[in-house]
Design goal:
The structure is a homodimer of 372-residue chains. Chain A is an all-alpha fold. The first copy, chain A, is 76% helix and 1% strand. Chain A is flat and about 65 Å long. Chains A, B: One of its GO terms (biological process) is isoprenoid biosynthetic process.
Chain lengths: 372, 372
């Protein structure tokens, strides 16, 4: 329960904790409702068991997220909209959930593309369905369709929520644009994997560009935009502000994620250290290292990344080169500068000092304290 | 060009031919616009070539359809709405195109699930992209994402169109429900493939149920519903009428498609005769044959369909059994009865006799004349 202790209020932690408790069960409830067959007709008895497996998998795949995006949307709305009717806040809660449902949809397809058997420590959706129906081909097909169903579900959640909020049409448009941006980002992410390593400046530029489309779009820009629109801000102004704050913040978030993959403990990110290097992922870190490396080190790095896979020694050597070339420091500088840009944009929003402080705090969750 | 000859008008052929000429280029235009990156940001130069390949493939995959669904939507609108402003008709044209874009999205994913290399006589989207980027894994990934992008695009087209038509929210809801129904239908279609052949009544029932979700939903029910709503009909009444006319019509369409696969010439359907049998597809024809067969024939059929693939002799033997058991005649009876049901529902719509005749004609295109 939310305490009325002024210290809690000052810290702003209580709202966020409460919001998380509200969001989590609501996501599962919405996913169960909207991945099941609609009430427009019956499902034949013989087909119900498979339908139930898909709905159960939808719920299972929806669990375990950090809910950073929904929390940013809902916290920003609470800060910007102030006291609103319960119905309007309920609509905003669902809209925040829609972003998380969209993320699950994207991850389900991402795991099929990457042929990943694991997600958040559990079997990935298509892998779990392969096991459930004892068929690789049918299980993968069901996984692909589950991604489709979830992608449609999040738009339907948005449609229902937006009809109960101001800026209805702009909200629907913003959500669809976000979805399109991420899908384009996934295409560009695949394109980066085919980018030659011989031109590191182009690679750094391309990687940052992918971050804008694939990550910043739905992680920070859309949550802020949806909150601003739902709080009644004019669409043009809302887009301008969401981009000014959310674009650098989203880039910083992804850069920090990539940096933690190299320097962080596996406890922090839930992934083994150097996983991106092992997979041969083309990151800004790699581009910065290639840019700063001398001829011999550059040739070494290119040779390591042009192999089909990398062993422990090669991962260790890469981390050594990321450090010695200054690529890690360069990323720290990039992150700090982007966070500064985002803070400055928040300061320009014409909020009272309390609102500005709370919004800064909500945004700060996307950048680890040591990197701000 | 549309002639003013009264015989042409009487036949109603002119409008349909003209509508087809309007729809075709508009689909390509919308697809090119909405599969490209949105104007919200730049795409890095190094990544543009792949983005262009995806947009070109989106356009290519969008070509060659019969446009039956868009034509039904637009013809029904013209019949029901009468004279409207050019802007309202343009909005309805785009809404009709959205159904075709959705179909392309669904087919792109369907081809990945079925591992089909061909579609409409050309390489399927994922297969073409595999060849274009010289990588199976990345090409398939791009194909999967292209399906996602097209699925989002058709909803954006709908959003823009619906905002210029009456019943805006009901139109958006109807489109999303259609999309969800088809996606559920694809899941159920995969489930049917796992249904045992030992209970043919359950199989016939399950197959017809899949037709409702996977085919009737977007082939006949949604085109009629979108037309009725865009013409200003009340949502409840529109849903009731679209279902009454479109449900039996869509089932008849799919039954006829399956029947033509067995008895039709490859010229008519663009597919080799017996293709469904060769693939081992669980159809209503198979269920009806199993129901009516004597013990020996039933065992024969089950043995043929439980194998991994079927040769020419087995296909011929199956067609023989579909004929001798009366399954083909049973399907003809089913189709005629469903078409009769659809006609009766049209007659109950309280249209003037000219509108009733034209709507009957628009619906009749879904059932070959010899089977009505």
């Amino acid at each position: 329960m939310c305490s009325s202790n002024p210290v809690d209020k000052l810290l702003g932690m209580c709202t966020t904790a409460n919001n998380r408790e509200i969001i989590e069960p609501r996501i599962i409830q919405l996913v169960r409702e909207l991945t099941a067959a609609p009430a427009t007709d019956e499902v034949a008895d013989a087909l119900k068991p498979v339908m139930e497996q898909v709905v159960d998998q939808a719920a299972s795949s929806s669990q375990g997220g950090k809910r950073l995006r929904a929390l940013l949307a809902l916290d920003a709305f609470d800060i910007l909209a102030g006291d609103v009717t319960p119905d309007r806040r309920d609509a905003m809660i669902d809209l925040a959930c829609a972003i998380e449902v969209f993320q699950t949809a994207a991850l389900v397809h991402d795991d099929i593309i990457d042929e990943s058997d694991l997600r958040r420590g559990k079997p990935s959706a298509h892998h779990a369905l392969e096991q459930a129906v004892h068929s690789g081909a049918i299980g993968r097909g069901l996984g692909l369709m589950l991604g489709d169903i979830l992608a449609t579900a999040c738009i339907e959640i948005t449609r229902r929520s937006a009809s109960r909020l101001p800026n209805t049409d702009a909200l629907n448009e913003a959500f669809l644009t976000m979805q399109r941006e991420v899908e384009i980002g996934q295409v560009l992410d695949l394109a980066v994997e085919m980018t030659p390593l011989s031109n590191p400046e182009a690679l750094a530029n391309a990687s940052l560009n992918v971050f804008r489309w694939k990550t910043a779009s739905y992680t920070t820009i859309a949550p802020l935009l949806l909150a601003l629109l739902a709080a009644g801000e004019s669409p043009d102004q809302a887009r301008h502000c969401a981009l000014a704050v959310g674009r650098p913040l989203g880039l910083a978030f992804q850069l920090a994620d990539d940096l933690l993959d190299v320097v962080g403990s596996s406890r922090n990110t839930g992934k083994p250290v150097g996983g991106d290097i092992r997979e041969g992922k083309r990151t800004v870190l790699l581009a910065d290292a290639l840019s700063a490396a001398d001829t011999a080190d550059k040739a070494d790095l290119i040779a390591i990344f042009e192999e089909d896979c990398r062993n422990d020694n090669q991962v260790a050597r890469t981390i050594e080169l990321f450090t010695s070339t200054g690529a890690l420091d360069r990323s720290r500088e990039r992150i700090a500068a982007l966070w500064g840009e985002s803070r400055k944009a928040i300061a320009g929003l014409e909020l009272n000092s309390e609102a500005q402080r709370r919004l800064t705090e909500a945004c700060a969750r996307f950048v680890p304290e040591s990197l701000r």
